[in-house]
């Protein structure tokens, strides 16, 4: 198996495990932040790869389709970590599109690939996703629902990048007499 095929396979394995653990429901949102530089063993933002981005995006889209989960791809800090989503996702979740075109050096390779691969992509500033994968320490927490729960996946890396996963849960409210399911 080539290195690119291995990265696609690793991505699919991680995304599948996360969505299974989270019990992801149809129509929920998964955010993915990714440094393709980190995946290749370089410093974040230093040497993005469209081949790596294509492999990761392909794997993510395959898994998201299987679980009927919507994918949101986070841009890099140069675009304030905005997100690329399908227009129908923005409409369903009432997300306001913004005017910007992610490119590899301002947005990141994965966001640029999503922009060119999605059917009808738009960029939005904020989202509250149900689950998330952070490939290469890109800091996705700002786009998760309020109570994020770390998930320990069996896979710890994609390529050479550290992998962090999270699911979310509703807030627990009330006091000592409250009952939670």
Q: What separation lies between the terminal Cα atoms?
A: 45 Å
Task: Give the overall pLDDT as a whole number.
Answer: 96
Q: Helix share of residues?
A: 25-40%
Let me know the number of strands: 9
The main β sheet shows up as: 9 strands, mixed
Shape annotation: globular
Residues in β-strands, percent: 15-25%
Count of alpha and pi helical runs: 5
| Helix-strand category | alpha+beta
The poorly predicted ranges are none
Please give the radius of gyration in angstroms: 16 Å
Q: Could you give the order of the helices and strands?
A: HEHHEEHEHEEEEE
Q: Can you put this structure into words, describing what you see?
A:
This protein is α+β, with helices and mostly antiparallel strands. Helices cover 31% and strands 23% of the residues. The protein has 5 helices and 9 strands; from the N terminus they run αβααββαβαβββββ. The chain has helices at residues 3-22, 36-39, 50-67, 87-92, 109-117, and strands at 29-34, 70-74, 83-86, 97-98, 121-124, 131-135, 147-151, 157-158, 161-169. Strands 1, 2, 3, 4, 5, 6, 7, 8 and 9 form a 9-stranded mixed sheet that branches. The longest helix is centred in the N-terminal third of the chain and has 20 residues, at 3-22. The protein starts with a helix and ends in a 12-residue tail after the last strand. The mean pLDDT is 96.
């Amino acid at each position: 198996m080539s290195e690119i095929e291995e990265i696609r396979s690793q991505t699919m394995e991680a995304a599948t495990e996360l969505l299974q653990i989270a019990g992801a429901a149809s129509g929920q949102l998964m955010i993915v932040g990714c440094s393709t530089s980190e995946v290749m063993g370089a410093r974040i933002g230093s040497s993005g790869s469209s081949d790596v981005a294509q492999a990761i995006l392909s794997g993510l889209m395959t898994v998201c389709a299987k679980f009927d989960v919507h994918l949101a791809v986070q841009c890099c800090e140069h675009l304030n970590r905005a997100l690329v989503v399908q227009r129908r996702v923005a409409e369903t979740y009432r997300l306001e599109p913004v005017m910007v075109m992610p490119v590899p050096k301002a947005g990141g390779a994965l966001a640029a690939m999503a922009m060119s691969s999605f059917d009808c992509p738009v960029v939005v500033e904020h989202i509250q996703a149900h689950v998330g994968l952070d490939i290469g320490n890109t800091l996705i927490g700002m786009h998760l629902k309020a109570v994020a729960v770390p998930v320990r996946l069996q896979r710890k890396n994609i390529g050479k990048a550290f992998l962090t996963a999270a699911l979310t849960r509703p807030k627990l409210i009330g006091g000592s007499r409250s009952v939670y399911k």
